[in-house]
Amino acid sequence: MVSISEVRASNARITQETVPHTAVFTGATDGIGKATLTRLLSAKLPVRVYLIGRNGDKQKAYLDTLRQSNKQAQIIWLEGQLSLLAETRRLCDEIKTRETCLDALYMSAGFISSGERIETSEGNGLSQSLTYYSRIMMMTQLLPLLNASPNNPRIISILNAGNESSSIYLDDFDLKQPGHFGLATLAKSLSTYTTLSMSRLASENPRVVFVHHYPGGVNTDLFKKVWGGKWYWPLFSPALSMLATSPQDAAEKVLYLITSAKYGGRGVSLAVGQSPGLTMAKTKTAGSLFAINDKMKELQ
């Protein structure tokens, strides 16, 4: 387990050698992703970031702010709909035409259903497509670039490490059958799919550090967008404000996951008294998945 003070101290020691030189961010136009990208750029180091999202015209002010915050950074906006796998592949192809290697792939794009199953035009569940199918496609498509990186390559997926379950519908992964779709079922299914898939990819790509992270309750606008109109929102909102982590603290933790030598042995060196993190296979090096909960504790 790592304290927030230890996290901040490590992040303050990020250098040009330990920062990801080239990174891809999804889910970074809002919430934890936005706070993480903002925090990364605040280090004032030369980085190139591909920021993927929708509605580029609406994001112009945000992009301008990012670029002004770090004159050494190059922010490349790629517009696309990550809920569609054809679009996800197109975006990955675009990145592969521009880059020969990649240091970091950060993913937190997602959708919280208010209870009903919504399908994309490709026939997949919207939540499953954004949170699992699209992310796995990005990993597999961009792994050649990550494997080519000399700079501590990492994949960070922000979801729900620790909520895996053996009680999933093996004959209905997309939860299409009547009575299968629900928030609890969706959460444990996506967590399980993610951990199993990332574990397999980690074993096949030992040069790349894979991290599945559960950030806990974070006080972003996501919950308000989904449940703001519900009768219980006036009761839930104050509790969220009091108990949830701020996006800024969540971002510090994510930046630590991206840069610290605690995970895989390369990156910002550990402080005196700190020990290397353990993967789910109880190893200290890459080749297995690091599953990290909201207390920054490694899960086995």
Q: How would you describe this structure to a colleague?
A:
This is NAD(P)-binding protein. InterPro entries: NAD(P)-bd_dom_sf, SDR_fam, Sec_Metab_Biosynth_Oxidored. Keywords: Oxidoreductase. It is a single chain. The chain has a single domain (4-292), classed as NAD(P)-binding Rossmann-like Domain (Rossmann fold). The chain has a seven-stranded parallel beta sheet, with helices on both faces. Helices cover 39% and strands 11% of the residues. The protein starts with a helix and ends in an 8-residue tail after the last strand. The model has no long low-confidence stretch (mean pLDDT 91). With 300 residues, the protein is of the alpha/beta class. The chain is built from nine helices and seven strands, in the order αβαβαβαβαβαβαααβ. Helix 2 (31-41) links the parallel strand 1 and strand 2 (48-53).
